[in-house]
């Protein structure tokens, strides 16, 4: 079926065209148009790795273990948002309050137990986000996990609270667990594409995705996905398309070379991503290098007004 | 026992003859008599496949990945209802609000983990349906699953909320799980017949069923079911009969040829179904073909006033 | 220990002598003295088999698949009560409202998954029973199941609601699960005797029991039970005695010959049962035969005033 | 370490010296000083065996199957309290109301499934105890069970309700489950000693313990417990001491000879027990013998004023 | 990466510089500046071993089984706080009320079942702490346990209640469970470092840690941790640093020699710990020795004003 292998195209969702309650509209406007480049793109700095991976991620650049490091980078570099858990927000944000929007992560887990039945645990509520003056909450959904029943149930309650309080909902939509591994793995085109659509149908305003990767396990994907011809760009385009009217952020993952990072950033912005969420690729550098890299990324984003 | 193998006959439930609270009566009247053919039949267009199967179902007809495609088909084709999850309703329905009734699906799951212990997870509440102006909610019950305890418990609470708010309850009554497979499989006459009766006793206003199919595993059914002589028509008739005063919708399942689809539709309407719920068989076509097919189906339904 | 093998004797509980809140007293009076024979005996017609066994139970007499069949039998035959789930009550009872008391079954399960860890799931609440004008609720307790923790917990909450609303509580007290099978089986004297006492201590007003049966597995019972010499009559007498001030109903189970049924009914009434709950033995017959059999049973009950 | 093997000594807790809310003080005074010997000792008659063991316990003395038997024994023998579940209290207590205090057992389980993961299930609430005019509640804690998380959580909520309503809390503190068996067994000195301290720290006012027993499995206890030299008396003394300011009741267990029973009773009272809870050793006898034995026990208790 | 192996340095968190609600500020001030040395250091005496280990810990010094022993030591020795469960606080604290602050432990477990899936169970609430006049609550988090989902969820609710009531939150952050053992064990640098950061991000005001230890299982740690060169001092420094603005208490663990204890105490204070929590190392001694040792420790703490 030749149509199936054509890369889908689409326009990036525009805030004005979305059907949203006022509170979400106000807060998204603040993130997208009053910070960062200010053209509807989104550059976020995450600092949830201390929970997700442990302090191991700070070993390459010890000063980054101090959350002030990230906040200073976010403020000075002019990010659209910083994403972290309650424990960091309440102790470090005072000094930077109002200078950079907060995406409050409201669930998390360590990576110590196996991911076979992954589920992320509540660390805060939507009300906490309101109290802290946050402009969004971040919820991690482990798509396809055997514990998806609890996960989807929790997301449903979070989604309702977001609707009530006008709080934008960012879903980290991550394929994960034994069943995903048996069907091609967490980064397969099949898995990421499913994750994009699922989060959209469950009510995400913004979806954080990883760019799909080819792997040895691709032969375990459903046949229709094996039949698709794709590369980095068209894979990214496909999953952006599956996210429909939810805006998409792509992550950088573990640290890569600057040119690779720029290439990837350029590609995903061209296929319709709304923005980027770069953590280790930013703060695992000395501050001056991180600011320089931030500047390059923002120059790229400036070319992609919504 | 010869009586056991006679195909049961019955009249289709008529709205006026059912004992229902006013809110349900108003909303069912809107679905059955103010939309579609308007003669008490029901043609529904589901678009929950993005959660249940993932975007894989849109590969054969990429434009169908955009929910506007289904809404346009539903409005232009004059369907009685469209069925989808909250995330789609809130982003795409504004333009079509009031033009086609909404059946809000309030639970769902991915098909990534095994179905051995299937359960569908809450994605919305009955109150959400009220808020969205929906005319019914859709609940998927996995009949015979080892997790039936949770499933029946949840359905009981949904049923109560439906009674309170006057919201019609459509139950997708699907045999599923390891125990069902051991007794003949999900599409066996035994399984579907049980599913019909169970949903009726649990308070479904409308039941979505698949037409039973013969298979190699029929010899695992209880003896009394093995003794029944049946074909497509009498099998459908039997399960319609077991649904009693609950109206029955039959699905089309994966895409089949037009003549097969028309034959099947004709047969199930003749044995007392209230209507049809055709998703992939409709929207996996170009729009003109989908509208043409819709027209043929509606001509058929016109011959079956309640 | 010779005393241990003597069959216990006791008087049947009399409503006037029980210590009950007014609401329970009113409703039990309605069931016991204003319907049926009206002498304090109880003949109940259950129609919960559609959930517990599926429509398979209607195959021998297809007209019985229509709940009107049972309601007509119950009204015309003059039963003390009909027992069914919410879904049937709300759709069929209007026509017969007030003519025969309702025992609303408030939990149920299919028999599709294994009974090894049996638990019955909520299908309605005590408040539903109040709303429907029911005169009792029916709760199924799986005595000895590995999931007894949840089961007893749920029964405790139901019992409290019954106390609050003055709703009589009928407990279907059924030994069930892997552990019961390992100690002699669900119909063993040990198991049924335990079930009778347990339900009494947990607050049942009426207990539905099966008459104990001898089997090959009796040698797995505790020694003291193996030492008891008993027959059908003294077995029934023993379990009636263990139910103490809770009234006992015995079931008929699957369909047996008329004389066997009458013999069994006579025996259990003589040893102190308050009544009988006959489903398949009644409605798996043509209506005239069912009414005739009902008449015979009621003549028997007339000889056993409380 | 020689100190470790010295039997600890202590004074029995005196009501006046305990730090308790008024409601608990009033109710404990009623149990300890207005009933029984009236000198601060406590003789309780339990009748929860119908749930814990089933009617098997009544086989040796069939009249004892009637709860009136125990209540008559408790009133005529002048016990400090009778302990039973809600179902018995509500049906039999009216006649004896106010004549003997009630300890309402608020959880229970059958002994049919394995005890490997033992947990006792709620059968009533602290509010039920208030409503019934009870003077204490009884909660069974399975110390060391793999399900201890749920058990301790439930006890915590019960303890809070007891504090709120001024209801004394009696904890049946029973080592149980696979892990206990692997460390010496449920009656080992290690296990009972742990059970005593645990219940005390969790807020028990009174703790029901079994006297530790030596067994073949003692070599599985932690070394420090193997090093202790102890006998019946010093074992009992040790666990009484570990219960600290919680009063201790010892049980009689299964029926033993009268002289053994008197010896054991004398011993435990001498080492600081507050009282005794004798069920089968009392009511598995003809009434006159039970009253005679009760009289002997009370003469003993009279020698142990608080 | 040479930076990775440099021991991090940091200043100890100062109360005045932390961002805390008033209630927490008042209570922490009371603990840190109105008791103990009064210079912002913290010496706590825990007495939760009766639940965590059982009375076995009192065998080496039997008088310590009486909680008065610890309270007298705490008051006379001038500790900053005593930490225990509700059952002890309510019975023993009256005499010492106001003389030494209370850290109410609000969860606990026995060490009888395997720690493979460790979780600690609620024994009290934050409201209980308020009622008792406590100045902090103590919550045990089993970092990396397969049951971390429930554990983090519970901690989240406790953290919220602490914020609401202004109650300081002390987290006993203990790596535990099968997955931790597979990655180097509970005392590995990797595990303790993770535990420190995790508790900080989850909102702990104070974190109780064990000093990391080298072991045979270090080769199971992630490579980056194997690459770090460290000793007792730099290991302690690292985990103190990872706790960031949460104050750190180190424990003494099982009893060791006095000079070892002083050495360890000196070291951890020098690297930024706020204080010490010594239980068995204190109260497993005769009172005079315990007081003498307390005096030595306090002299050390006096050298470390905040």
Number of helices of chain A: 13
Low-confidence stretches of chain A: 1-5
The global form of chain A is globular
SSE string of chain A = HEHHEHEEEHEHEHHEHHEHEHH
Q: Class by helix and strand content of chain A?
A: alpha/beta
Main beta sheet of chain A: 8 strands, parallel, barrel
User: What is the average of the pLDDT values of chain A?
Assistant: 95
The Rg value of chain A, from CA coordinates, equals 18 Å
Please provide the count of β strands of chain A.
Answer: 10
Description:
5 copies of one chain form a homopentamer. Helices cover 41% and strands 14% of the residues of chain A. By secondary structure, chain A is of the alpha/beta class. An 8-stranded parallel barrel of chain A has the order 1-2-3-6-7-8-9-10, surrounded by 7 helices. In chain A, strand 9, helix 11 and strand 10 form a beta-alpha-beta unit. In chain A, helix 3 runs parallel beside helix 13. Chain A is globular, with a radius of gyration of 18 Å. The N terminus of chain A is likely disordered. At the A-E interface, helix 4 and strand 5 of A face helix 7 and helix 9 of E.
């Amino acid at each position: 079926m030749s149509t199936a292998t054509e890369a889908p195209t689409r326009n990036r969702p525009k805030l004005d065209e979305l059907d949203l309650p006022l509170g979400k509209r106000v807060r998204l406007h603040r993130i997208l148009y009053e910070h960062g480049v200010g053209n509807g793109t989104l550059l976020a700095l995450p600092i949830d790795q201390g929970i997700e991976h442990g302090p191991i991620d700070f070993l390459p650049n010890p000063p980054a273990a101090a959350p002030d490091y990230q906040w200073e980078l976010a403020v000075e570099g002019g990010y659209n948002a910083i994403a972290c858990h309650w424990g960091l927000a309440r102790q470090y944000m005072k000094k930077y309050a109002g200078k950079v929007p907060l995406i409050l992560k409201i669930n998390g887990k360590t990576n110590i137990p196996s991911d076979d039945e992954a589920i992320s645990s509540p660390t805060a509520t939507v009300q906490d986000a309101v109290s802290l003056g946050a402009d969004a909450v971040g919820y991690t959904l482990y798509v396809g996990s055997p514990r998806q029943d609890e996960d989807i149930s929790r997301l449903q309650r979070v989604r309702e609270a977001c609707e009530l309080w006008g709080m934008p909902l960012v879903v980290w939509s991550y394929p994960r667990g034994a069943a995903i591994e048996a069907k091609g793995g967490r980064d397969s085109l099949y898995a990421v594409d499913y994750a994009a659509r699922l989060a959209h149908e469950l009510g995400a305003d913004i979806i954080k995705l990883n760019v799909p990767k080819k792997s040895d396990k691709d032969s375990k994907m459903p046949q229709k996905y094996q039949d698709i011809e794709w590369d980095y760009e068209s894979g990214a385009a496909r999953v952006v398309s599956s996210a429909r009217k939810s805006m998409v952020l792509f992550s950088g993952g573990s640290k890569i070379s600057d040119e690779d990072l720029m290439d990837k950033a350029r590609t995903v912005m061209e296929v319709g991503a709304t923005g980027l969420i770069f953590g280790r690729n930013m703060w695992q550098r000395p501050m001056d290098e991180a600011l320089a890299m931030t500047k390059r990324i923002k120059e790229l984003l400036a070319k992609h007004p919504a």
